[in-house]
Automatic annotation (TrEMBL):
Similarity-based family: Belongs to the histone deacetylase family.
The organism's taxonomic lineage, starting at the top: Bacteria, Bacillati, Actinomycetota, Actinomycetes, Propionibacteriales
Keyword Chaperone on entry: no
Superkingdom assignment: Bacteria
Cross-referenced InterPro entries: AcuC, HDACs, His_deacetylse_dom, His_deacetylse_dom_sf, Ureohydrolase_dom_sf
TM regions (residue ranges): none
Keywords, sorted A to Z: Acetoin catabolism
Pathway where it operates: Ketone degradation; acetoin degradation
Sequence ranges assigned to domain Histone deacetylase in this UniProt record: 22-316
PANTHER family listed in its UniProt record: HISTONE DEACETYLASE HDAC1, HISTONE DEACETYLASE HDAC1-RELATED
Pfam families named among the record's database cross-references: Hist_deacetyl
Protein name: Acetoin utilization protein AcuC
Cross-referenced Gene3D superfamilies: Histone deacetylase domain
Amino acid sequence: MSEKAVLVFDETMTSYNFGPSHPMAPVRIDLTISLARELGILDEMDVIGADAATEDDLNRIHSAEYIEKVHKLSDNPTHGDASIGLGTADNPVFAQMHEASSLAAGASVEAARRVWTGQAPRSVNIAGGLHHAMRDHASGFCIYNDVALAIRWLLDNGAERVAYVDVDAHHGDGVQAMFYDDPRVLTISIHEGPQTLFPGTGYATETGGEGAEGSAVNVALPPGTSDAGWLRAFHAVVPPIVREFNPDILVTQHGCDSHMDDPLTNLMLTVDGQRSSYLALRDLAEEVCGGKWVATGGGGYAVMDVVPRAWAHLLAIVAGTPVNPESATPDEWRARIAQLRGSAAPLTMSDGRTVGYRSWEEGYDPASWLDRSIQATRTAAFPLIGLDPQP
C-alpha cells in the first residue's frame, strides 16, 4: 500500500457546469485545487484521474429509464424534463451533462476502490458529494449520486458495514433514501432543520426502514447554529453511534455550505469549525475502522472566500499533513481571487475563531432549541442500536 492518500482529480472534473448564473460554480473546484497546490498539499498526495461510471455501474443505483433520459437531454440540451427534475432552476440541462455526471460518479468509486483494496489509506473526491440525486430523478444540483454509487461498490466488493456521515448544511436525502432499508449502511446527516431549508426532510424520526431500524440518523439543527453548537451536536451523536455500528470503512460528505457567509443556508459556522469537523471524522476513522476513510465534497456556494480554504483544509487532513489555520494564503492565489472579482481575498486559512464546545456530558438544557434537537435525535435513534439516549 502507498503511504500517500489519494486525491481523485483531473481538469475535466470541472465540466460539471450548470452555467454562469448557477450558484454551484465549477470555479470553486479550480480555486480549491490551486490553493492546495500552492500550499504544497498536493505534494503529499497521489493525484490520479478516473474513468467515468458506465451505464452498468449507474444502474446499481439509478433506474435505466432515468439514465436513458439524462443521456438524451445531454445530447440535446435545448429542453428539459421536469418529470426527472431536469430543466429546472436548480438543475438546468447542459451539453455533455451525462458525461460530466458519470465522471464525478466514477471518481468516487475510484476513491472507494483505492482505499478498500489497500492501495491507499485514505482518499478524497472534492468534485463528488452529489447527495441529493434520487434513483429516478435529479434534485438539488445533483444528477447522479456518486456517494451512493461508491457505497454500493463497497458493498458489492465485500464491505459488510459502511458508515456514511454527511455534514453538508442540507440533509443527505438521496443517500439516505437509497439505503433506508439496508442495515449494512449507516447514514448520519447533521444539517439545518427541514423547517427552514431544502429538501424539507431529515427529521429525527427518520430512523430507517423495516429491518433496518436505527440505520438512519438525522440531526436537524436550528438556523443560526454556530461552531460551538454544531460541534456540541456532532459529538453528542456521531461518535457514539459510529462506534456502536463498528463499520469496515467510513464515507463522508463535506459540503461547506454550513459557513456563515454561504448565500443559500442559515447556519453560522466558520472555516475553523469546519476544519474541526474534518479532524474529528479523521480521528473517528482511525478509531473504528483502521483509518479507512473516503471523503467527498458537496455543497458550498461562497465559492471564493470559503470553499477553497475549507476544502484545502480537508485535503490536507486527508493527506495527513493538516495546515495551520494561521497560515497565510499564497500571494498567487490571492492575486487570482482579486482578478476574478475585483476585491481582496482572505489573508489566512482561518476566520480567526477559537473553536470549542460544551460537551453533552456537561448537561442538557431543555430550554435550548439546539439541545432539544440533539435530544430528539438521541431519543429516536439511540435505543434502536442499543444505546442509552439520556444525557
